[in-house]
Amino acid sequence: MSTTTLLRVYPVWIEAVGTVLQEIFRSPLPADTILQQFFRKHRKMGKRDRAFVAETVYGMLRHYRRLAYAARRRADDLRFLTLLYLKVFGFGAASLDLPVRPSEQGALEASVQRFQHPSLPDDPVAALGLCYSLPDWLIAAWLDTLPREAVEARCAALKAPAPLTIRVNTLKTDRETVRQRLRAEGFPSRPTPYSPVGLILEEKAFIFRTRAFQEGLFEVQDEGSQLISFLTEAQPGQVVVDGCAGGGGKTLHLAALMQGKGRLYAFDIHKARLQELRPRARRADVHNIRLHVLPHNRASIVRRLYGKADVVLVDAPCSGTGVLRRNPDAAWKMTPARVTALVEQQRQILDAYAPLVRPGGRLVYATCSLLPAENEQQVHAFLERHPDFVLAPATDVLSRQGIVLPHQRDAFLRVEPATHGTDGFFAAVLLRRS
Ligand SMILES: C[S@@+](CC[C@H](N)C(=O)[O-])C[C@H]1O[C@@H](n2cnc3c(N)ncnc32)[C@H](O)[C@@H]1O
Known about the structure:
Layout: E1 6-8, H1 11-26, H2 31-41, H3 47-62, H4 64-71, H5 78-89, E2 95-97, H6 102-116, H7 124-131, H8 136-143, H9 148-159, E3 165-168, H10 175-184, E4 189-191, E5 198-201, H11 211-214, E6 218-220, H12 223-232, E7 239-242, H13 249-257, E8 263-268, H14 271-275, H15 277-284, E9 289-293, H16 300-304, E10 309-315, H17 330-333, H18 336-353, E11 357-367, H19 376-385, E12 389-392, H20 394-399, E13 413-415, H21 417-420, E14 425-432
Parallel strand pairs: 1-2, 7-8, 7-10, 8-9, 10-11
Antiparallel strand pairs: 3-5, 3-6, 4-5, 11-14, 12-14, 13-14
Helix pairs in contact: 1-2, 1-3, 1-5, 4-6, 5-6, 7-8, 12-13
The structure holds S-adenosylmethionine.
Residues 225, 243-250, 267-270, 273, 294, 297, 315, 317, 349 line the site of S-adenosylmethionine.
C-alpha cells in the first residue's frame, strides 16, 4: 500500500508564490522579511499554505537561473516558473496535483527535460553559474583562487537547505540538559561536531514555542557563527566590545563566555537591529551588556574606550556569500560594485575600532563572506596600515579551548557548508603588540 499523499496545489498558492517573488526581486529587503510581511497581510492563510509558499519561494530562489534557462521564452512568466519548479522538485513527500492548463502541458514537459539535462556551455564560469544558479561574477571570483572541483563542491553545498542549529546558553545550563529537554518536548538533536555548545536539530521545526527556548536555555545560531566568539577567548571581568552587534547573536555568546561578568559593549549603527538584543538578553539572563546606537564610529563612547578594550569583535557587514543557503536571494541582489563598497566600509570600521584595543589585547575580524576581497585581502591590508597588530593562528586559539577544526591551511579561520557543514565564515585574530 502506498503511503504517498496527493496534495492539491491551489491556483492561489501559485499566485502567492509569484507575488512574493516579484516583491523579493523589486525590494532591497531580504526574502524572509518580505515573506513575513506577506503572511502578516494574509492572516487567514493556514499553516500548510504558508509552509508551501515559503518553501517554494526559497526553492525557486535557489534554482532561479536554471529554471529561467529551462523555461526559455516563458522565463518572465512566474506562474510557469513556479509550475516548472514544482514539477522538478515537488513539495516534501507528497505527490502534487498541479493546476496545469492543457495549453501549458507541452512547454512544461519540455522545460522539465531542459532543467534536468541542461546543455552546459564549455566556459566553466557560465557552466557552473547555470548549473548551480549563481551569478557569473561570483563563480569567476571563486575560480580565481580555488580549483574547479572545490568551487563545484561549494556551489552544490550552498544549494542545500541549512540545518537548524542552536547554541546552548551556558549561563543557565549545559548542552546535554538542553538536548534532553528538547527531546522530551519532541525535538531530537545531536551535538555539533566543532562547537562545544551547539546542537543540530534532527528536523527543521518551530522551536520558539518550546519551554526550553522560553526559559532562555538556547538561541538559534549557526555553528560557524558560534566558532567566531570562541576566537575572542573573552573572559569574565574583561572589557569586551562587539562593534557590529546587530541583533546580538554573537554578543549573547560573548556574555556567556564572560559568565555575565565584566563590561560588554554592543555597538551598531542600526537602532532597530540593536533593539532585538534587549528581549534576547533578558531571556538569556544576561545583564552586563551596554547597548549604544552609534551615529558614526568616532562617537564619544567609542573614543572613551581607546586603548581600554581587552577584546574587540568586528563582525562586519559583508556580501553574505557564505550564507547563501539561508538567504538565496542575496545571490541576485549582490553585485561586484556593492562588494567594492562593502570592502571600503569594512576598512573604515576596522580602522575606527582598532584604537580601542589595549596593548596586548585582541581584535577579531569576521565575515560571513566567501570572497577574498572581504577576507584575506582586507586583513592583509589592515596589517600593512597597522604594524602594531600581528596575526595569531586561529586554530591555536581554538585548540586551547579543546576545539579541533580540520581543513585549515593558514592562520585564518575558514569554514563553509562544503567542508564543515556550517555556514561560510571567515575570521582573523589580530593581536595588538604590548
Ligand atoms: C554581519 S551583521 C552583524 C551580525 C551580528 N554580529 C550577529 O552575530 O548577529 C553586521 C552589522 O554591522 C552593522 N554595521 C554596519 N556599519 C556599521 C558601522 N559603521 N558601525 C557599526 N556597525 C555597523 C550593521 O547594521 C549590521 O547589524
